[in-house]
Known about the structure:
- By secondary structure, this protein is of the alpha/beta class.
- The protein has helices spanning 11-22, 29-40, 50-68, 81-91, 106-115, 124-128, 133-136, 159-168, and strands at 2-4, 26-28, 74-76, 99-103, 146-150.
- 49% of the residues lie in helices and 11% in strands.
- Strands 2-3-1-4-5 form a 5-stranded parallel sheet, with helices on both faces.
- Helix 2 (29-40) packs across helix 3 (50-68).
Amino acid sequence: MIVSGPAGSGKTTLAHGLARTIGCPAICRDEIKEGMAHATGQFDPAPGDPLTVRTLPLFFAVVRLLLEGGVTVVAEAAFQDELWTPNLERLSQLGRVRIVQCHTDPGTARERTRDRPPRMAHADAQVIDDPRYFEDFRRVAMSAPTIDVDTTSGYQPSIEHLVAFINDG
C-alpha cells in the first residue's frame, strides 16, 4: 500500500496507524533519510540535496526486499507522479497496490509542519513556505485503486474504512 500527499498532509501519522492496524511495517522515506542524516553528521538539507538522491534507491530497495519476502508493506512518502510512478509501477509487479492520497488545506499543513519537532534531514520550511508548493504538487496517477483521505480533523474516511479498501480494493 502506498500512502502519499504533500508535506504536512498527515501521511506519516496515517501510515503508522494503518501499519499498526493491519499488522505490517511502515516504511517511510523521511525516516530513512533522517537515519542517513544522523549517520552522516553535518548536513545542510535542501530540496534535491545529495542525501535525498541517495535515499530514493535505498527506500525502494527496502520496500522491494520486503515485498519479495511476501510481506505486506505500507510505503509512505510525498510521492509525486513524474518522479515516483516509474519505481512504484515496478513494485506493483510484486503485489497488489492500493494508493491512499492524503490531503488537507495548505494552512493546516503549514501549521503542522511548523509545529513538529525539527528534523535534521529536511528542508520543511523551504518547501512549505513556497506559495506554489500545494498548487504544484502532482499526485501519483498510476493505474491502481485509489482513495482520498481528508486528514484535517481525524481521518475522513475512517481507518476502518481505509483498511477495508486496502483489503478489498
